Amino acid sequence: MEPRLNLMSTELGARLGKRFGGLSTAIMQSALPRSTQELMMLRASQINGCGFCTDLHTKEATAAGETAVRLHLVAAWRHSTVFTEPERAALALAEEGTRLADAHEGVSDETWEQVRKHYDDDQTTALVYLVAMINAANRLGVIARNQGGSYEPGMFGELPN
């Protein structure tokens, strides 16, 4: 399957991409732990079937020091012992926020309570924006058919820690 379109190849695409990237950078610079961010983005990308984003977030997480065991188990995080309670709350939010069409209530009160138990207002804001942004990025990648496998850590510049 060949990519359909390079979204950054036009002036409009470049302008939109720059703004999209700016918002993503602001989220990455928040107090939300980088490892939590990468795990959430990886899980949403898996659910959405975005090969490029799954590749990117697996490799960026590895470059940031994430372990292979945790990366392999992120798809089955509910049935593993390697994630902390705060990470589990964030992964539940990522899943429920990604599967909005599958859940009549969206994000459950139980998940929201767990998020609020472990994260302050700024971190919770970052969590919510992160779910929205990765889902938007996944949709861009899937619609344009961006393929996974060729991403190299740091190819879009130095990511903030």
Account of the 3D structure:
The chain is mostly helical and 161 residues long. It has a single domain, classed as AhpD-like (Up-down Bundle). Helices cover 62% and strands 0% of the residues. It contains 7 helices and no strands. The chain has helices at 11-28, 34-48, 51-63, 68-73, 85-98, 109-118, 121-144. The longest helix is centred in the last third of the chain and has 24 residues, at 121-144. The chain starts with 10 loop residues before the first helix and ends in a 17-residue tail after the last helix. The model has no long low-confidence stretch (mean pLDDT 93).
Compact summary:
The protein has seven helices and no strands. The chain has helices at residues 11-28, 34-48, 51-63, 68-73, 85-98, 109-118, 121-144.
In terms of per-residue confidence, which ranges show pLDDT below 50 for 5 or more consecutive residues?
none
Specify Rg, calculated over alpha carbons: 15 Å
C-alpha end-to-end distance: 34 Å
Helix and strand sequence: HHHHHHH
- The proportion of strand residues reads under 5%
- Under the CATH scheme, the architecture is Up-down Bundle
Mean pLDDT: 93
- What is the number of helices? 7
The CATH superfamily label reads AhpD-like
CATH-assigned fold name: AhpD-like
